Amino acid sequence: MSVKISLVPIFICGFLALQAAAQDYSIKSYAFLGTGCPAGSTTVATDAKNQALLARFNAFTANVGPGVPISHSRKNCDATLTISVPDGYKFSFNHFGYYTGYSLDKSVNARYNTYYYFQSDIAEGGGNGNVTGLSSDLKYISTPVSPPVWSDCGIDATVIVDTAVRVSNTANRSGSGTFNYQQLNILPDSFTWARC
Predict the structure, then answer these.
(1) What's the predicted TM-score (pTM) here?
(2) Looking at the predicted structure, is the pLDDT value of residue 3 above 80?
(3) What one-character-per-residue DSSP string does 82-112 give?
């Protein structure tokens, strides 16, 4: 006689346990610095539990075109976050979400990327994407992260999230383009938790 055991309840219980652990984390501090987020240009809001962070950028715009200095074609922002980590758990990021706006002439390209790493480690994980004109849109972009890079176990972790965009008109020197990061969202579903 054979017995079939469903593993679904086991997986569900394990998932719920990890989610329960996630309820104990918090974003303890944050700081933003870069050409796309100079001092005083970023407005940050967190929820009541300090588990979600929304950063609204007022200066994170890269542009290119005739007469535009080459230094304007690339902007970046480093977000330094301190995360409290529950005992017996570690975390990685699985994606980052952004509200963006862009307007690109024909063959003008914008390449964007986000990478993160922990202050205690040199390994990094991240993702990137690009859009090529002729194109204009206001768009929410979710950037998947690979490979996962894990925090230390059960202690506060300082993590740097580095976001950058470069706009290029090398394929159309007379073309112009603008790419604007409007808001960064780091929400509870941005985290992946694991026992350690």
Answers:
(1) 0.87
(2) no
(3) EEE--TTEEEEE-EEEEEEEEEE-TT-EEEE
Residue 111 β-bridge partners: 130, 166
The predicted structure's pLDDT at residue 8: 38
* Bridge partners for 56 per DSSP: 43, 183
What tokens does 1 get?
């006689």
Please tell me the predicted confidence (pLDDT) of residue 120: 83
Q: How confident is the prediction for the chain on average, in pLDDT?
A: 91
Rounded to whole angstroms, the Cα distance separating 132 from 97 reads: 20
| Burial class of residue 135 in the structure, from the number of CB atoms within 10 Å of its CB (0-12 exposed, 13-18 middle, 19+ buried) | middle
Q: Which residues pair with 131 in a beta bridge?
A: 110
Quote the radius of gyration of the chain (alpha carbons, Å): 20
- Ramachandran angles phi, psi of 51, nearest 5°: -110, -10
Residue-wise pLDDT for 25-50, tens only, equals 999 999 999 999 999 999 999 999 99
Phi, psi for residue 72 in degrees, rounded to 5 = -80, -10
Is 156 in contact with 83 (CB distance < 8 Å)?
A: yes
Specify the CATH number of the domain 25-195. 2.60.120
Whether 127 and 114 have beta carbons less than 8 Å apart is answered as yes
Q: Which two tokens stand for residue 157?
A: 């972790």
Is the separation of the CB atoms in 55 and 36 below 8 Å? no
Residue 4 has pLDDT above 80, yes or no: no
